[in-house]
Amino acid sequence: MRLQESGEMYLETILILSQRLEHVRSLDVAEHMGFSKPSISRAVGLLKNAGYLLMDPTGYLTLTDEGRAIAEKIYERHTTLFHFLISIGVDEKTALEDACKIEHYISDASFERIKAFAKTLN
């Protein structure tokens, strides 16, 4: 089953937050994404039930191995596409917005070709 774009965004956000916070809570995700607490609670429940996320008794969120793999894949796509778009002259704001859109839909084959080509630009 393919995870929806919104689920990928939640996992990516938890990954990013976990890199700068000792513990990630639903409230941290809500504040970072600008979503309501009920929206985050619903998403966290779905991601937990699907096996992508764990929540300990104190409310701290942790990605499962499968959740982390998805989050890292999306984050790599995001950063690679953002830097690629910047390197070909796209302004930063547009590159950020477009990378966020493309990262969820680009095929593995196309992404790998863009990643390989981007390396030749450095």
What do you see in this structure?
This protein has helices at about 5-20, 25-35, 35-50, 65-85, 90-100, 110-120; strands spanning about 25, 55, 60-65. The chain has about 120 residues and is mainly alpha-helical. The chain has two domains: about 5-70, Winged helix-like DNA-binding domain superfamily/Winged helix DNA-binding domain (Arc Repressor Mutant, subunit A, Orthogonal Bundle), CATH 1.10.10; about 75-120, Iron dependent repressor, metal binding and dimerisation domain (Diphtheria Toxin Repressor, domain 2, Orthogonal Bundle). It has a three-stranded antiparallel sheet. It is elongated and about 50 Å long.
Keywords:
about 120 residues; mainly alpha; Diphtheria Toxin Repressor, domain 2; three-stranded antiparallel beta sheet
Distance between the termini: 37 Å
The count of helical stretches stands at 6
Give me the CATH fold name of the largest domain. Answer: Arc Repressor Mutant, subunit A
The CATH superfamily name of the largest domain is Winged helix-like DNA-binding domain superfamily/Winged helix DNA-binding domain
Assign the CATH architecture of the largest domain. Orthogonal Bundle
Overall helicity:
55-70%
List the secondary-structure elements in sequence, H or E.
HEHHEEHHH
How would you characterize the largest beta sheet?
3 strands, antiparallel
Compact overview of the structure:
By secondary structure, the chain is mainly α.
SSE diagram, text form:
Layout: H1 5-20, E1 24-25, H2 26-33, H3 37-49, E2 53-55, E3 60-63, H4 65-87, H5 92-102, H6 108-121
Antiparallel strand pairs: 1-3, 2-3
Helix pairs in contact: 1-2, 1-4, 2-3, 4-5, 4-6
